Amino acid sequence: MDKYINPVNKLILASNSKLDLRYDRWSAKHAYHGIGDASSKKWIANILPVELLTRSIKKAVESIVTLTESDFRFKIFPDNIETPNYGDNWGRFANYIEINNRAIAKMVGDKCTDGILSAIKMLPAIPPSAKSWANCIILSQVFPIIYGEGYNKPVWEENSVYGMKLNAGFSENIIANSLLNNISAEDQLRAFNDLAHFRGIKTGFRMIISEDQLKVAHRDGSDENFRWWKADHQELYIRKCVKLINLGFEAIFFDSAKHIGGYDCGNYTGVGALPQYHQMQYILNEIRSRTGRGDLSFVGEKSSDDFERYRLMGLNAGTAFVPVDDFDTVKYWSDNMKYSRDYAPGVEVSNDNDEGGRSYEERLHRIKNCFFGFTYPSDKLPSFMQMEDLFPLRYDTNTHHLMMTNPSYSTDGTPESHWENLFTKEDGRYYNHQVGEIFAYALNQ
After folding, report:
1. Distance CA 22, CA 76 (A)
2. Could you tell me the maximum CA-CA distance found in the chain, to the nearest angstrom?
């Protein structure tokens, strides 16, 4: 195989398909369009995730190129894909959508794999960015977890994505090991990023910062507990973030960032020490400096009630500060923060701790407030949502449960059955249609 071929075409060949791309009539038939000046923006809605997850990688790529904003029909996936350009401070205004790529991975027996391929297959159903702000996918997992890596477990057995192992490559839950002879793990991640960027979507990943939830792997010995006071551990953490940025990611969501430097630790629910304030400033600056990327977005979980503290730390957005159920309050904070162009607190439909129970109507109302709670679109607050806010999960699970555990919901041992049963059925399809209608108007902002 030509070592210079682009990652997407490498992935197509590795999947035993030919490079020539055809117009995907199924995608065209299910395409939604933006309203007004955004009419050229397209994505798939009024669907169930299983309809995408059971398609081949070749079909996923053909769907993505069919949904291009131009009328040009690509016969082969192009080289030199660039991220959509919304300026250096795009992260302060973005809409972040976290996709639990482990939950939608391929479940065969007790094995879990190919999560990045499933994330690629879902890309056609993620709306592209709006006129004034970017949509950004955050992947829940890229690095190995401490317990249960590469396996699904019963619904009651914990194997949390909040326990992360560094210096052990990439997660077996996420990488397609069966393709490694023909495409590296790094190129699989590059392919995801190129396809997302081609869709007009930015990308990022979740990182843990609680030191007792981190391990350092060693080839010739036992895993070592991560410690922020160890210079080599801090350096390893920086290098791993830099590596992912160099593979095409451009945002990092830092779990428990509110409590960095010992702030408000009475409400801290993580395990272990956090980096010091000046230490985190150094880490973020190093990531930007070493990647040569002044346009990265760093998001802090709940880091939003002391605005200057988090802005000076180097963050671009914080979550869960503004009460999202009240439109006027969202609009008030949008107006209040309009002169702060590099950092703002955010609103959220739901977060990774969501334990379900929220009605479809409430979720839709929250999405509307996130997308329209402003005087001018250029002053929009950053917003956050989860996979479930686009594609509702089955009723006996929730976002947080799938972050803490990794069950297969297959009734016959096949991955297709898991994908079918992980999400709700026809009511979920109609909900996805309603979300699509909201996005159609939002993309014109």
Report:
1. 9
2. 60
